[in-house]
Amino acid sequence: MESIKKAILLSGGIDSICLTYYLKPDIAYTIDYGQIPAEREIYVSNFICQKLGIRHKVISADCRSLGSGTLANSDNLSISPSEEWWPFRNQLLITLASMQAIKDSISELYLASVKSDDFHRDGTNNFYKLSNELVSFQEGGIQILCPTLEYFSHELVTKFNVPLELLSIAHSCHVSNISCGKCSGCLKQLRVRHEINMF
User: Fold this and answer.
1) How far apart, in whole angstroms, are the C-alpha atoms of residue 49 and residue 164?
2) In which residue ranges of the chain is pLDDT below 70?
3) Which parts of 24-78 fold into alpha helices (H)?
4) End-to-end alpha-carbon separation of the chain, Å?
5) Hey, what CATH class is 6-195 in?
6) How far apart are CA 118 and CA 166, in angstroms?
7) What is the pTM assigned to this prediction?
8) Segments making up each domain of the chain, as ranges
């Protein structure tokens, strides 16, 4: 029987670091889709993969002109549920990663959305269910999996016993390659660090 080959979308944030540490997939993809902090996300993700002995690939597709909010350094659309909202972002990331994954003979593609992401429609169980149905229906039959939806970020750290060495380099800033300490991504990271007594 053919073995299952796993890949993960690794952004360099706490959630994807936790899932990468737990899964130890065959390969991790970091996507530069035109987001402002792409350079730092790639650096952190590469560091994590080197530490864990995981193959790392960067996928580049500049879609900044299609983005909105802080990640694209542009105004939010009127329907935006948050300052960092980028239209169809997770759908875009799944599509780009799946395009590479099929070339890499990947069977399962993992993402790490958490409980606090469910105010975005693309951070819900229903979104991942529908994404899996669509992608697995197509050639290659790749499964889209998000096993972290029932947990908050600090719970992932505890559940997967993630070393602080890996978490300390996490980058979640939406507006810069150096953490601003003020955006919602930075505030989330500070909150998680407090919750796990990292200070």
Assistant:
1) 15
2) 1-2, 198-199
3) 38-52
4) 47
5) alpha beta
6) 25
7) 0.94
8) 6-195
